UniProtKB/TrEMBL annotation:
<keyword id="KW-0408">Iron</keyword>
<protein>
    <recommendedName>
        <fullName>Non-haem dioxygenase N-terminal domain-containing protein</fullName>
    </recommendedName>
</protein>
<dbReference type="InterPro" id="IPR027443">
    <property type="entry name" value="IPNS-like_sf"/>
</dbReference>
<keyword id="KW-0479">Metal-binding</keyword>
<keyword id="KW-0560">Oxidoreductase</keyword>
<dbReference type="GO" id="GO:0016491">
    <property type="term" value="F:oxidoreductase activity"/>
</dbReference>
<dbReference type="GO" id="GO:0046872">
    <property type="term" value="F:metal ion binding"/>
</dbReference>
Amino acid sequence: MEVPVIDLLPYLEISPALSSSRPEEVGDQLGASLMGLCGEVSRILRETGALMVKDPRCSALDNDRFIDMMEKYFDAPPHFKRFQERPHSHYQVGVTPEGVEVPKSLVDEEIQEKLKAMPEEVRPAIPKGPDLKWRYMWRVGPQPSNTRFQELNSEPVIPDGFPEWKETMDAWGYKMKSAVETVAEMAAIGFGLPKDAFTSLMNQGPLLLAPTGSNLRQYGQEGTVFAGYHYDINFLTIHGRSRFPGLNIWLRNGQKVEVKVPVGCLLIQTGKQIEWLTAGDCIAGMHEVVVTSRTMDAAAAASKQNRSLWRVSSTLFAHIATDAMLKPLGHFADSPLASKYPPMCAGEFVKQELAVINLKGSKGES
């Protein structure tokens, strides 16, 4: 099964004219065709947990410019990159070195039981320890002026020697932000919720442009796990196209898909926060990054052309605002599964999840 592709342009052309967020009035303004498109977005997120989108605001050139800079950064010596490390902020800004983040599949007993029950042909690679990837977290958009979770809303970190850093990160980050907010709006309409049901909760939340860097020169052997099997703890995750294959995702029916993002497209995956807000109607999507034969072929071609052998992901994590309440919304509150998703402040939820995967911050912090 191919991951479905949704063209956002028809909705973008009419969305500025939408004068109400109420479902019945939005339906009248959109008409049957666009309501059907919004329904497709919500259906695909519910039934598969992943979809591709085409957004005319996000060009392949923008993505390439961003990846070019991140390849240069990740190629810097480890001691230089560690100057941007901020463990006291739970690694939610700056760099996370390789060997820090523990994949959920190594520490979550429920996930481990599910892995045992999986058919061998769709089972993920089992990592032997912490992830071998580096990651950089860059906040996109405004921070809250008053929050209980200051450590989750810290100031961005800019490495020395990269004068283009802020402009490049913001240029790509804001375009990804626009795309994921549009999908959130369309999904809300498709679920029969007010169109701003999700985006209002995302207001001033951590939208984290989070490129990962995986060193194929050092760890380019087939089967190497850069990011072990896991779900994302945020609301929605959006990926641009990487220059190297290696991302595998699992659809809700258990099917394993080796992702091939077409040029000009973006991949959206459901995170744990949308699962909470929909009382499990959507389920957080599982994924991994591993060196495959296709990864090795791409690395060999890059080596011949004297290109970088860092596999850079172009990823943005869209979170619900840390001080907002996570709880099933609207009609989802009447779901028989709603009791599995009790009201919880998003910041508390994030801190609990980060502690499990070893991103709890410095000693003494929860």
